[in-house]
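REQUEST ID: PR-0412
SUBMITTED BY: lab tech R.K.
PRIORITY: routine
TASK: structure prediction, single protein chain
INPUT:
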Amino acid sequence: MERNRKLNHRWEPVETSASDATFQSSSQETRPNLVSTDLAMAGNTNLTIRKHRASAARKGKLTHPIFRPPLNPSDLIQRVLSEDIFLGMLCLERKRAERSRKKLFLLLLEVDEATETTRRAEILKRVVKSANAARRETDPAGWYKQNAILGIIFTELGTLDDAATSNKLLEKIHQALIAHLNAEDFNQVSVSIHIFAEDTDGRGQNTSENPAFYPDLFHMQESKKASLLVKRTMDIIGSIAALVFFSPLFLIIIAAVKLTSKGPVFFMQERLGQFGKKFMCLKFRSMYANNDLTIHQEFMKRVISGSHDGNSNGAAKPSYKMTDDPRITPIGRILRRASLDELPQFINVLRGEMSLVGPRPPLPYEYEEYDVWHRRRVLEIKPGITGLWQVKGRSRVRFDDMVRLDLQYARGWSLWVDIQILMQTPRAVVLGDGAY
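STATUS: complete
OUTPUT:
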C-alpha cells in the first residue's frame, strides 16, 4: 500500500547546488558495499529534499507533495454516463449478447418534449434520481439522447420469461418515479423497454433487429448522409434507366410466362428489408402456381445451419441452392439462369424498398433460422439487386461466407465499391455460374 501511495505524489523538480554535486560525486567514488550504498543514496536524497525545502522557504514558496486520491472503478458505473459513453457501452453489451446468446434489456425514460424547458429540466433531474434508485450497482445508466432520454442497461436478470422480467422492471421503475415525482410530472414521463434476444417473444417485436440497440448504425448513416443521398439518386436514375432499357424484354417475358403455365405473370413475395421491415418483392413468376413451400423451407434450414455439404446430384462444384427444384417451370429455368426473373425488382428500387447494390433480402422463414450474428445482414444496410455475393460465387458460397461478404460490403461501403460491383454484375449474369 505504501508503494501505491507514493505513486500518487508529485514532487517539484529539485535543483542541486555545486556542493551537493561534489558530495554525491565523492560518495560514488568511495564505492562502499551494497547496504552502505543504499543508505548513502537515501541520505543524499533526504539532504537534497531538505535543502530544496529550505531554499523554497526562504523564497516564500514552500511546496508540499500533491496527493491524488485513486479513482474507485465502481464510481464510474454509478454515475449517469454521457451520451457517447453510454451508447458505446450499449453497443459493447449488444455484441456480448450476440456472442453469449444471453438477453439484454434496455429501459428508456423520456420526458414529453412539449413540457416547458425549465420544468422539463427539473423533471429530468428527478428521473435520474428515480433511475438510480431502481437499478443495481452493475446496471449502467446514461443518456441515450443527451439531456432528453435516459437509459438503463440490464443484464443477467435470471431465468424468468421476457414478459415477467419486463413487468418486474417496469414495476420497479414506476415505484421509483412515483416516489420522486408528483402526479402531474409523472404523467409527463414515458417509459419503454426493449429486449435484445436470440428469439422473439411471440408478439413480433423486441427482437434483435430492434433499432434501439444499434445507435452505431445510425451514427454511421449520419456520417455518410451525403454519400447515401448520392446512392439513392443513383438508385432512382439507374432503376428508371433499366426499366426503360429492358421494357421490350419485359413484353417478351410476360408473353412467355403467360403462354407456358397457368397463373399470374408477376410473383409477389414478402421479404425483409433493413431493420426487418417487410415489403413485397417483385419477380417474374418462374414456378408453378400454388406450389409447396416446405420443400424450400427444409432445404434452407440445412443450408443456414451448415448441415448441407453443398453436394447436389453429383455436381462437380458445390452448390448451396436447390438445383433440382420441381416447382420451377421450363421457362422459369431459363429466366433464373439469366437472372431475368429479377428484372421487376427495379420497381422495388424505385420505390426505395431496395437498392441497386446490397445484400439479398431474406424470406421471413429464412430469417427465423438465422443465428444472431447472421441478422446483421438485414440491419446494417438496405437490401439490393446485386452485391458482393452475386459477383463472388453466388450459390457456390456457403451461407456463413455469404453473410460475411454482406457484412464486409456494409462496413466498407462507398460509392466506388457500388460502381465496381455494378460493373462486375453483367459478367456474372452472362456466365451464369451458380444461378439456378
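NOTES: The longest helix spans residues 34-58.
REVIEWED BY: pending
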